[in-house]
Predict the structure.
Amino acid sequence: MKKIEAIIRKSKFSAVKDALHEIGVNFFSYWDVTGLGNEKEGHVYRGVSYSTSDIQRRYLSIVVNDNFEETTVRTIIKAASTGDVGDGKVFVSDINEAYRIRTGEKGGETLN
């Protein structure tokens, strides 16, 4: 199993969520996060323009079976991309085991 973590623009979350549902990824967790990156967002407050390095993003955590890793990553990248600096990152790591709390079963079947 693989854990796919993605940090994306908040404005692209709906597109990514819909794209993931289309390929059959119906369960994942997400959080609103703030980070630092190469992109600098500009803000205007009471007519004064200023920039900050704090960037608001959405963090997704998805666990899939090994054979579904590439499809999931490609789907996220396609749906989240604007072509501009700050589109985000995708990280993939191994998951040793998964357990379904309700039944106690374990393995890749727990993801269905």
Summary: Strands lie at 2-9, 29-45, 48-64, 88-94. Residues 2-111 form a domain with the Alpha-Beta Plaits fold (CATH 3.30.70.120). The chain has a mean pLDDT of 90.
